[in-house]
Amino acid sequence: MNTQTKIDAGELEKLDHWIGGKSVAAAEDYLEITNPMTGAPGLLVASGGKSEVDAAVQAASAAAKGWRKMAAAERGRLMLALANKIRENSELLAEMERADTGKPMAGARAEIEGSAAYFEFYGSLVYLPTGDILDVAPDQHVFTKREPYGIVGVITPWNLPMNQAARAIAPALVAGNVTVAKPSEITSRTTIALAQMATEVGFPDGVINIVLGTGQAVGEAIVSHDRIRKVAFTGSVGVGRAIGRIAAERIIPLTLELGGKSANIVFEDADQDIAAAEAVKGFTLNAGQVCSAGTRLLVQRSIYDAFMKKVVAEAQKVKPGEGLGPIITPAQFKRVQEYFDVADKDGAECLTGGAVATVEGHENGFYIQPTVYGHVDNDMRIAQEEIFGPVLVAIPFDDEEDAIRITNDSDYGLIGTLWTRDVSRALRVADEIEVGQVFVNVWNTMSVQTPFGGHKNSGYGREKGIEAIEHYSHVKSVSIKI
Ligand code: NAD
């Protein structure tokens, strides 16, 4: 891969925009990004604004018709070629992801494999029929077809950078759109690499454009741009709301993938060893910086004490460093620690952790010990607010009805996980909980095929699966008198 983003160079690397199939240097400033493993400056990232978004929209407009009219087979071949290219470069891409986020290599590799899977999955869907024939009247031929919006804006966060860019860009492209994307300014390397690789495998210039910079300067310019007809946003509830206001003025559709405070519900008939291990994975994966993290653990009172012993033992096996990566920024690191004070004041019982961690060789990194609070009341702030760190709150419940009530007593509704051997109960609870996806006896498979999205403050619209293609296209009907 011909990439400008070298790793481990002695001096700070500069990362530039990717517009119209070319690297475009920052007009003025670069943002200095801190390495979360060392606390030291890590990378200089171009700080774009309205003029770079204009240039990207122009490049995208020039490419739009050609991409939309390209034979499905050819579009599919390019998508599959990009998937292969990602896999060929997976180790380098994982190192880039680690350089930006500090995450352990195992997590970075899984994320890169997931990015390839998006292009493979959506590339294999290019032949899907896009419309229906409707029986309206004997003398009419009426059909529907799905059409792209044109230029789709994609705004992504820092926790799974390349994966989330791929999750939106792949279905948008297969639906016939072209894209202008903005990764988080903190973690831009792999999104630029994605666009570079697309150019290398033959995607026409302008089909994937990446503008780097802050949310206020670049993100708002994308959402406000009059040629961008749909925006896919993954990030926080606050920014989702701000984008929603602009989109309401402009009357454009959004996909909003926002935060979560997902429940892991353990019934007394569960396989406790597996449930405990998966519960710990559910809040320590990516150091808890995952929208679907299972950060509320609901445990049936009859097994509460025995089960929590297992959870604490499992949590203590997770070692900060290669087992548990750092928190992404100094501000977020401080915020997670503030929740320890909130928990103390609210009277939660700290069963393990509740403090920062020191990692040998990375003494100034932003590491937190895996932390478990017990006997938490669902009204406490640590049970209601998304902490975005490796912090689990355990809440006892009495019966099925109580578990459903506590699960739904949340502003969020992303995923829910049930641990039980009783299939009837699993189906009843799955029906009643207000979440976008339910897992039973497995925590979050993250499969490409399964539609993903939220209820309530977790957002609306769906990514992944065939459903995502519907969210990146609209239906036109054609009625012909014969
Ligand atoms: P964030 O909302 O601060 O930023 C997300 C993106 O939006 C970044 O690229 C940022 O630069 C941009 N942005 C910021 N302000 C903007 C504005 N005014 N207009 C347009 N764009 C703007 O979120 P974050 O801190 O990067 O990520 C963490 C959040 O993302 C958490 O709440 C997490 O739950 C959520 N998230 C959700 C999902 C999901 O699929 N549901 C996945 C990952 C993360």
UniProtKB/TrEMBL annotation:
GO terms for molecular function: oxidoreductase activity, acting on the aldehyde or oxo group of donors, NAD or NADP as acceptor. This is Aldehyde dehydrogenase (NAD+). Belongs to the aldehyde dehydrogenase family. Keywords: Oxidoreductase. Residues 27-478 form the Aldehyde dehydrogenase domain. It holds the Pfam family Aldedh. The active site is at 257. InterPro entries: Ald_DH/histidinol_DH, Ald_DH_C, Ald_DH_CS_GLU, Ald_DH_N, Aldehyde_DH_dom.
